[in-house]
Amino acid sequence: MADEVILLNFWPSIFGMRTTIALEEKGVKYEYREEEDVINNKTPLLLEMNPVHKKIPVLIHNGKPVCESIVQVQYIDEIWPEKNPFLPKDPYQRAQALFWADFIEKKVCVCGRRVWTTKGEELEAANKEFLELLKILQSELGDKPYFGDDKFGFVDIVLIGFFCWFPAYEKFGNYSMESECSELMAWGKRCMQRDSVANSLPDPERVIGYVLHLKKLFGLD
């Protein structure tokens, strides 16, 4: 009997992009269900499958929910281990990958949000911190093609969703990602050559439009 896999997601979500890429990398057949209004009108299925956080993405595997995108990517890697393993087998390298994923989740995601939700001195501080965090990641990348060395792996999947948001950060933060983090941008372009990534990331201009909508909705414009 074939696995039933459903992904509840909302198209601009960096978190949902991770899960989509992971499924695509593994060649898993799944049903994509768009949550059209995750702010004011969450579907009954979303609320049932994620009663704690009530947030997307939710991966439903044979009727059982798996929540939180990093957990989902790890779960996908363990359930379908035959193709394109994401995490290294070596315990130390595995721990390092999980460390950087946690860094992205707790530092980069939080700070990135402040770039488009603040003004004045707060925005200046957010810009400075955000670029410093990205440069730390760029330093970790070094001269490797991917964070997983020669292969696209766990940390790449966790971070690459930011690539389609970079133009929005540039617009509202008023800086150039190419001049600030050229090696990280080259990495992003390299990742975009993979079908799994290119098919999962939305058009950056559409992301900018969405952020403008949010800023107006929350009185931030």
Automatic annotation (TrEMBL):
GO cellular component: a single term: cytosol
Gene Ontology molecular function: glutathione transferase activity
Keyword list, A-Z: Cytoplasm, Detoxification, Transferase
Keyword Cytoplasm belongs to the record: yes
Catalyzed chemical reaction(s): RX + glutathione = an S-substituted glutathione + a halide anion + H(+)
CDD domains recorded: GST_C_Tau (cd03185), GST_N_Tau (cd03058)
Compartment annotation: Cytoplasm, Cytosol
PROSITE patterns: GST_CTER (PS50405), GST_NTER (PS50404)
InterPro entries from the UniProt entry: Glutathione-S-Trfase_C-like, Glutathione-S-Trfase_C_sf, Glutathione_S-Trfase, Glutathione_S-Trfase_N, GST_C, GST_C_Tau, Omega/Tau-like, Thioredoxin-like_sf
GO biological process: glutathione metabolic process; toxin catabolic process
Lineage top rank: taxon: Eukaryota
Major site of localization recorded for this protein: cytoplasm
EC number: 2.5.1.18
Domain GST N-terminal, residue spans: 3-84
Statement: the UniProt record of this protein carries the keyword Disulfide bond: no
Span of domain GST C-terminal: 90-218
Enzyme class: transferase
Family classification: Belongs to the GST superfamily. Tau family.
Record-given protein name: glutathione transferase
Organism (species): Brassica carinata
